[in-house]
Amino acid sequence: MSEESDSTSANNVENTEKDADEIVTDNAAQLEEQIQNSVNAVIDAVADNGTGDEGADEDTENTLAEETDAVKENLPASEEEEKQPEEVEKQPEEVEKQPDEDKKQPEEVENTDNNDELNFEAERESRKSDESNLKPEQFVDPDVSVHTEPKSLQDTPESSADVNKTEVPPVTEVSAQVVHSEPTLVEANEEELLHKIPEDFYYDHHELVTKPRVSENSEIPESLLTLHHAFGYDCTKRANLHILDEDHLLFSAGSLTVVLSIKLRKHTYLKVIGGGSVGALTVHPQRKSFVVAEKGNKPNICVYEYPSLKLYRILREGTEETYSFVTFDPSGELLASLGGKPDYMLTIWNWRHEHITLRCKAFSQEIFRVSFSNDLEGILTTAGQGHIRFWKMARTFTGLKLQGEIGRFGKTELSDIEGYVELPDGKVLSGCESGNMLLWDGGLIKVQIGRKGKKPCHLGPIQQFIMDEGELLTVGIDGYIRVWDFESIDQAEATDEGALFEMDSMNELLVKDENNNKAMLKWMIKALDGDSLWYAQDADGGIWKLDLSFSHTTKPPEKMFSFHAGPINGMSFSPLTDLTVTTGADKTVRVYDYVTKHQLCVQKFSAAGTCTQWMPTSVDPKGSTIVCGFGDGVLRVMRVTKRELDIHRKSRMGSASFTLTQVLKPHNADVTAIQFNQDYTYLVTGSSDKTIFFFSVDQDFKLNPIGYTSIPCAVQQLQLATHLAENKLLVIGDNGRAMDMALPEPGSVDSSKTFQISGLASREFRFKSIKDRLRREERRLIRERERDLRREKRRKDRQKKIDRGLIDPEKEPEEPDSEEEPDPDEGVPLYIPETYHINTGFYSRDGNKFWLSLSGFDAGFLYECQFAESEAVRLSESYGEPLRWIEIPEMQEKAVSCLSQCVTKNTEMILLGLEDGKIRIQIPNDVSDPNEPIAFNDLAKFWVLPMHDTESGSLSVVKTSANGKFLVSAGRDGNLYVFTFLPPDELEEAMAPAMLPSPRAILDDTAGKLEDIKDPKAYSIEDAKQKAEQDRLLKLAEEKKTGLKKKIQEMRRQFKKLLLKNGEIAPHLQLHRNEFELDPQSKIMLSNETLGRTDMAVTEYAWDSEKQSLALAKLEKQFKSKLDFDSLIVQCIGSEQEVSSFRTEKLPPGFKSQKLELIGKASKGAGLLGAARQLISQQRAENEAAQSQGGGHDEDGSAGVGGGSVNRPGGTDQDKSGGRVDEKAAKALGKMEKQRQRRLARQKQWEDLNKEKPSDDFEDPRDVAEIKYALEHIGDFKLKTAANYVVPEHLRMNTARKLVQLMLLQEKMYNKKRAFNERMLSLKFKKSDVLDEIDRLNEQLQSIHTELKDIESTKRAPERPTLADAEKPEELYHYTREKLIKFQLEKAAKDQSMAMAVASAFTAQTTETDQMMESNLTKPSSANTNQMGDGTGYKRPTVAPDTSSVPRLLLGDELLEGENEEEQSQGSMEREESFTSIRQTRIGFRKKASLLNEQDRILSRIEKLTRHFDDQVMSLRAEKFNLQVDLKRADLRNTTLFEEFVQLKEFEKRENNLAAKVDAKYDEKVDIEQKVLDSKTKVETKRLEIERLEERQKNLLEEFKAGLGENNKWEEFLTKVFKKKIKRAKKKEQTGDDDEEEEDDESDSDESDSEDDDFDDEDDEGRVVLDDSICPPGCEQELYDMACNLRETRLDLEEQLAEEKKTFDMMKKDADSMTKKVKQVDNALSAAEKDLEDFQVEKQGKLNQLQMIVVLKLHQIEFLVQGGVLPNDLSEALVFERNGLLRLQTRIHELHDEKQQQNRKQKENKLQNVQLKKGRKMLSSKIQELASECDQMMLLKFGRTVDLQRLEMVTVNRLLEELKEKYRQTELFCDREIQQWDGTIQQQKENITMLTRDNTRRINQMTMLLEEQKVIEDTLNAKQKKLGGEYEGKRKADVRERERLIQLVQLQSQEIEALKEEITLLSRKGGHILPPAQPPMPVNQT
């Protein structure tokens, strides 16, 4: 299209009326939609049919043209005129959009692919997005014309002129070529533009920076607020601390990037440009720039130059919502960025040119970090949630790609990975959640590393790995920084997958503050001005300065800056000065001077802070009191004062400090709200434990609890109705609940027993969502408005057509509106959320109404609600729905998280804090009192500024200061921003530090001494009161019980007195015991009640009894059942000496089987190396034998081959040709064969004899065995501590051997103890027998004493010895009731003596009274005592009765019954004494002597038994002493063995590895030696084969000469023919496989193809014509044929010999390489054995360090110094066995005798050697004589010396016979092959015929297609000529299509010519079918 037509069209557009514009726009939009659909159809057709199918292209073009014409016919003339400029505009846009769609399609496909290999050519896309924001004229070459299309003509009035200036190709019609149209100049020159960004180009950061959003016509200044300071740091963000230079740090805080000066503590802020917040930071390796990656919708990556802080580059379209990490490569040329959810995109940027190099999806879950390898180019690593991935930038044929490999955890538990580091060799070391380190190699975990003792490297995940000067540093969340040995980690190995490799760190540093609060380290960077100075990021809210020099001068960690970590939950301003207090989830309370930008003080408590309030001056005139609520329900009242100077503290403290004045705990859960009333005399707190507590505030700033009330929901917010006369409280609860309640009066609540208040009037409201209904109503109104617009538009269109005369209104009346769109919401139920969350709420000016703001589904609105005024309203279905609602403009479904009201500069403002981190200020239309509630009428005027984090920066508080000059916002991202309303000049005047009161001026004596509540389980106020009330009631009950006990005791005393008085009176006056019972039935009732209680007690304690029984059974199983013999004591009878047994435990079950198993294992391990060596020696011997045997066999074979039977291809052996030789030749051959066999037998004898000949280094096996025995028994006693000590193989100790020693020692000790215990047991039984015998003798002696009656003559028998309890151990485990009662009493007494509690005085007095009563009851009367006369008092029975369950009144009866029994026993004793005296008088003097003699005998017998038993006891006692000494030594030995076992256990793994390595090397050596032997055997065999072939060559020459005969005149010619070298064609072997034949065919065909040019000099088959092919005249034809045949044989032998030599060389080379490998294996084996020996020495050294105790006597010590004095120090002495010393001394004499014997043997051997040498000389001379005689005989017979083998071979010309047979077989084979080739040629001819026919058919088809093409072109040209004038001229698309078709025709012509040439070539080779000479002409040319 020409420029004139474009200008005309543009003028027409400008002059068109508004209505016509709307119609044209609508119709043009429809046209554009139809055209786009057509284009899409064409694209689909092209994609389906391919671009090469011309017929399909023509069809689609025709279809598209028809559709375009149909659309044009429906347009009026004006629309066609006005459509043209829009097409000019839209056509390039479609051309530009289509490549973008083409580029996006592979991206979507590749993103879903599983191969993780993606390639994105995003250069054009990135450039295209940059052009929309850059100023092209600033960096584009001015000579290049750049076209930038406006998006619509209506948006750009000057679009016509712009269109005229652009070089846009004419658009005549829309066709399928839109997809393939030429790009615009921007696209064509994008590669040039890409490199045209000047290095000095910068963006204007001031223009691009995020500015406040101000509503239109609001008259709110954009500079309403100015950022004053930011007290914040995103300390939980990864890698949020970087260093720019020696004095500046870089970090982010919300939407700010902060550059912090360390020395000046000055902050410089950079705000984001995308409207969001900061996602990640990084610094360029050269520190000349840094990167800020943002969060938000389509976030940017900004590159700032440092130190100018200019905006240098902007990278766009890298992710959808947020960047989580960015980093540079080591060169600084590439930048890698990680996107967050939802795309998780990894992008590699060429950041200097602002384009994407590579891009792909990194993972499907959150990725924490990405990094480039410092040592390997193109290697990246990413890690994140449950994965680690290893990337490689690979260049393929399609371009640069990213290939990712997921790390596989294997047996290791899946874990999140925070930190990792790439090692120089490509391995990666990472952390895991358990705190251990994982070493990755090749995508797998090579080893898991932890500290020794199964301890993790860190407690928690490792956040960072740092490689610093060859050392590895790990940074843990547990506050530790540990330094590890990098070499040990790099070489760590594990035997099993997932096994743990243990090692300790070299150094470590714990980072903690002065209060021992550990840091939570996230990131660490090294300072630029110190080798060991580092800066660390603390996730607990701080920046640390660390000294990692690890020396004696190391400085302690210093916390340079402190911030909030986590959400800030509460904030309040000071009423007097410019201070604010904050508290947050990090458990700290902080005070800031926001004017001077300083943090004054900070204090950490035991729970998170939830809310805070600064008390006003009406309560505290000095304005220093703060009330804070915490997460554990504690309420603390503190005062802020100046900090007193403390020269001893070096930490960076502020100028203020906190002092606790009151600590209360009103709640058991977190305090969520604190609210004062208007005059600040009333305080209300709310909690999530569903309680509200009320306090009164007195004049001393003390909080006095009034009471609390419980509500049905958790409290989230409280508000007192300060604007109302009545005291009302608005409670905002959870799940959409709100309550309104009255406040209690301070004096009307009774809190003496409980603080709970009941009966408070309250109303409840539960919110019901109406948002879905509102949205449906909005959609309905929009549909109605659109329907009305369509009706109006149709009416106007009809009226225009009527005005133009196109429609007759009478004939065509207006159709009624029949289109009724269905309502999509009809039938769909309203969406009602399951839960609601109210963010904030407040009273409206009407006391019964209130406003709510919710989050979630109902966000974006403010709802006005009302409490029910009656029960009917409360029960109605609509109750809970808001009365009215106001939609907050431009909220985008974001919720209001906090709200406050202020008046600044006489302007009322509503401050809103949003969930997405934005600060919103509303200016209401009506100005009201700031103390009154807000009236929401119009929210159109607003001011919005994004500041906090978009994801976690929901605002918790936004308020203005007391003076209204500053605004402070606190968010849940931990950031605190201070803004000012003041201009700069007024701000300078306000910059004064806040005044703090002095601590001495306001604090009393008790201040600072208050004890804080730190226990989270401490009692709350109500719990403490309930506990006190319960204690009071218990005390009253105890006092009442004590009074009753006193009365009972008094009654008992009175009753006892009555009993005593009754006993003192005369018996006939005494009352019977039954008469004291006033009511006998009561006694029976009490007895029954006692039995019932007893049964009840038995039932109640049945479970406890069973439990104790089970516990007793377990104890017996644990302790008693394990005993083989318990402690037993046997005492002497006549003395106090005793002997005790050994308390012995049983051997473990399976001890013997385990011992035998270990013994077998130890013996097997002991002989492992010896067995391996023996195996090698045995295998060597076998190999040598096999080699010798194989050599003999080869000799046999060689002899056979030498006779002329050579196995060659095409030849025949002796069996095949034997039948065709004559009988004479057969006989001669048989004779020669017998001679050969005799010669071979003699050769075999020589070989056997030579085998018996020993080599020069031969050693007699007997001598070797004797030397070995001598070495083993020579007694080389080197000290184990000596440097040259080598541990013998049989003495090498391992865990199995040591465990066997331990078990054998334990078994021996057990047997010793058991034998002694058995003797003890037999001695105990013997004592029982002795005691029984003594009892029997005592009975006899007692009877003798009875008969004697003479006291003087009787001898007193010794006291009967009894068995002590220790002598009856079997009774220790059998208990009776008496034993249990005794044990219970002893235990009670012991517990009472050790009790620390002090009993009350009354209780002590009561106890004394009870004891007195019991003693009186048990004391006998004085009369009975005098009668007994022994003064022992009342004798208690053996079994004490259990009086615990018997009433105390029964004790009197028991006492009386005891007195009656004593009186009866006393009377019986008196009668017995009188009877004895009578009997004594009747004994005569004759019996007295015999009785006395018997008495003496019995006493002697008793004494003898006693003495004999005592002697046995003493003997056994002495034996036990000796046994104890031995057992003690055994225990010491056992301890030593166990220590050695522990040491060996540590070395076991290494020893097994080394032993396995040695065994592997031994196996490898055996294998390689076997291979060497096989190789040598093969080489020797091949050498013999070569010798046989050479011998055959010689024999062939001899045969040729023999065939010629002597003096043959044709000898020279025939010799020339025989020796001529000819080029022979490859022979086809008859014995070969089919595959070999095919290979030969291929090779022959290749040769024939290569020789086509020279076929004139050769025959058709390619064989070379020989010059000697004709026998010359005069020469015998037989001789000529013989020469030719022998020549062929010679050539065959030469070829075979060449192949054999080649094979021989290869085998020899392999043998040499094997020999070298043997040396390498020997060296490796020696090294492995050396390592094992060194390890044994090392292990022995460790074992030598163990202390061993040796008990020696003085006579055993011979280590004496000068003068024979025993030294004080025996450390230099050597302990040696006496037997060993004696053996050495004896060995000296034995060696002397052996030496003499060996000297004698040596002399005898010398004489024998001389004799053998003489015999050898004689035999050698005889052999020479026989050899000379043999030579003379050959000279006489043959005339020369000949070889007998050769002579045997030339006897019969066997080779000639074989050649004749071979010729015949070869002729038959060639005939068969010629027949096969004839068949193949015939088949190929048929194939050529078929191909020629197919080619002819295709040429005919091509001719028809050309004719159809011509017809279609004519038709298309005719249609184009019929178009209007504006479409005249040729389209560039047609021109290009015509050129393309011409090129296609030319290409096809070339293909035709090529086919012709191929047909001609085929016809020359014998084909008879020729194609047409010329292709058929098109139809129009014929």
Task: Please give a structural write-up.
The chain has 1982 residues and is α+β, with helices and mostly antiparallel strands. It is built from 36 helices and 63 strands. The strands form 16 sheets. Strands 1-19-18-17-16 form a five-stranded antiparallel sheet. The chain has a five-stranded antiparallel sheet with strand order 2-56-55-54-53, with no helix packed on it. A five-stranded mixed sheet has the order 20-21-22-23-27, with no helix packed on it. The longest helix has 120 residues, at 1485-1604. Residues 1-29, 45-194, 647-652, 1185-1221, 1396-1465, 1627-1667 and 1967-1982 have low confidence and may be disordered.
In short:
By secondary structure, the chain is of the alpha+beta class. Helices cover 44% and strands 18% of the residues. It contains 36 helices and 63 strands.
Report helical residue fraction.
40-55%
Task: List how many beta strands DSSP finds.
Answer: 63
- Strand fraction equals 15-25%
**Biggest beta sheet summary:** 5 strands, antiparallel
Quaternary form: single chain
Radius of gyration: 58 Å
Averaging pLDDT over every residue, what do you get? 76
* Count of separate DSSP helical elements: 36
Placed side by side, the strands forming the largest sheet appear as: 1-19-18-17-16
Low-confidence stretches: 1-29, 45-194, 647-652, 1185-1221, 1396-1465, 1627-1667, 1967-1982
Distance between the termini: 39 Å
Shape: flat
